[in-house]
Amino acid sequence: MALIGYVRVSTDKQGRSGLGLEAQRAAIQAYALQHGGELAAWYTEIESGRRDDRPQLEAAIAAARRMKAQLVFAKLDRLSRSVHFVAGLMARNVDFRVADMPQATPFMLHVYAALAEEEARKISERTTAALAAAK
Question: Of all residues in the chain, what percent are helix, strand and coil, respectively (each to 5)?
Answer without folding.
Answer: 60, 20, 25
